[in-house]
Amino acid sequence: MTRAAATASDLRPLAGRVALVTGAGSGIGRAGAIALARAGAHVVVTDRDGAAAADTCAAASAAGGSAQSHALDVTDDRAVEAAIGAASAAHGRLDILHSHAGVQIQGTLEEVTVRDMDLSWALNVRSHFVAARAAVALMRAQGGGSIIITASNSGVQFDREMIAYATTKHAAVAMTRQMAADYARFNIRINALCPGFVDTPFNAGFEVQMGGRQALERYVATAIPMGRWGDAREVAEAIVFLASDASSFMTGHALVIDGGESI
Ligand SMILES: NC(=O)c1ccc[n+]([C@@H]2O[C@H](COP(=O)([O-])OP(=O)(O)OC[C@H]3O[C@@H](n4cnc5c(N)ncnc54)[C@H](O)[C@@H]3O)[C@@H](O)[C@H]2O)c1
3-195+231-257 architecture in CATH? Predict the structure, then answer.
């Protein structure tokens, strides 16, 4: 390989690959989708909010990447299966699935309703099951792929008054590890992404639970060894790493990116 070719593949390690991202209209999903496109993948950007997905798509294109977008609610099994099938049919393959959308419902056992526990399960576990199930069928046929399931550092530690979130995020990590063990022999790598506090709209509910932005800022400054929020772009780097051959011998891993919070 020439020096110039090596440099090009270093810059665009995902050239020629096709990715689909859920919940990519905001925050980490958005930053990850843009980073995947910048790394050379063609990215199918999806979000329940179609306009937000389109906005991410435009940002990915502006960054020099290739992307398309459409609305997708991950609680709609048929729609998830159809979106994954359509991405593969249109581009001849699906190399990367980043199943990212999730929900955080605060509260203790007595505060969380059964309905909200079901909703947490539907987004944080079931939707990943449905998406991964559709993707592995295609990836097996094409000889491999990389699936990234967004969990949380709440999937490897326990929070206070977060029964629905911590339970379902632990389940997402467990499911990722089980799937990884089953599908490694098909050259399909499956890893969990476990961010800590990343400053996105996702923390709005926790902010209320903490008693406002100032209290949340104090919490972040003291509870996190690095003393600050993560930036979505810092997590996006890890998404590209898990999607690419840079992590080629890594599967069933829960990659924690949390400024040391879970230490
Ligand atoms: N931000 C954090 O601090 C943090 C930390 C750990 C884990 N996470 C995980 O990351 C994911 C989202 O975080 P974020 O910071 O990117 O959030 P965000 O609020 O910035 O964006 C979430 C996106 O998901 C979309 N969405 C919500 N419900 C959906 C559904 N049913 N179908 C499809 N899309 C849907 C929203 O429209 C929104 O665009 C969750 O799985 C969450 O558990 C976030």
Answer: 3-Layer(aba) Sandwich (3.40)
